[in-house]
Amino acid sequence: MRIIGLDPGTYRTGYGIIDVKGSAYLPVSYGCLESKEVRISGRFLSIYDQLKEILSLHKPECSVVESPFLHRNPKVSMQLSEVRGVLILSLAQLGVEIAEYSPLEIKKAIVGYGRADKTQVGKMVKTLLNLPHIPRFNDTSDALAAALCHAQRQKSILAKYQ
């Protein structure tokens, strides 16, 4: 099963694609969709185009988009929700199954503690995927963690029926 995890951001959206082969999690591709556009509409278009290219290249079967959290600044919360809309549209257009988990659920699944910090998440992602180093951006680590969370959830669901 191939899973893409997405961590929405207005300037940098993290993505992480993993393959699940038996009990192994294999990294396929990961990084950030970035835009230097000043106008928000330009940033959305850039994120959309970059994600469509990645989806066409890697063809994930399912996806995880981190669900929103309430930010101190309502404008930031609104923009993150709008980015999520762009991501979900891109995935839906290609028929990719979409799951959503909160940051707390993802951290609990990966680190074992829902209030884990970014460093702990990065270290666990590195360990679980046998990466040479922790991803440069937290957005990338968070996206890979989301994909790993979904893989673990799917395995536990399948195990119940076997």
Shape: globular
Q: CATH homologous superfamily?
A: Ribonuclease H-like superfamily/Ribonuclease H
Helix content: 40-55%
- Strand arrangement within the widest β-sheet reads 3-2-1-4-5
CATH class category? Alpha Beta
CATH fold-level label? Nucleotidyltransferase, domain 5
Which sheet architecture does the biggest sheet show? Answer: 5 strands, mixed
What is the count of distinct domains? 1
Summing up helix and strand content along with how strands pair, one would put the structural category as: alpha/beta
Distance between the termini: 18 Å
Q: Roughly how many Å is the radius of gyration?
A: 15 Å
Task: Report on this structure.
By secondary structure, this protein is of the alpha/beta class. It has helices at 40-58, 74-93, 103-111, 118-129, 138-160, and strands spanning 2-7, 12-21, 24-34, 62-66, 97-101. A five-stranded mixed beta sheet has the order 3-2-1-4-5. Strand 1 and strand 2 form a beta hairpin. The two termini are 18 Å apart. The mean pLDDT is 93.
Summarize this entry quickly:
The protein is α/β, with parallel strands linked by helices. Helices cover 51% and strands 23% of the residues.
Q: Main traits of this protein?
A:
Nucleotidyltransferase, domain 5, globular, 162 residues, alpha/beta, 5 strands, 23% strand, five-stranded mixed sheet
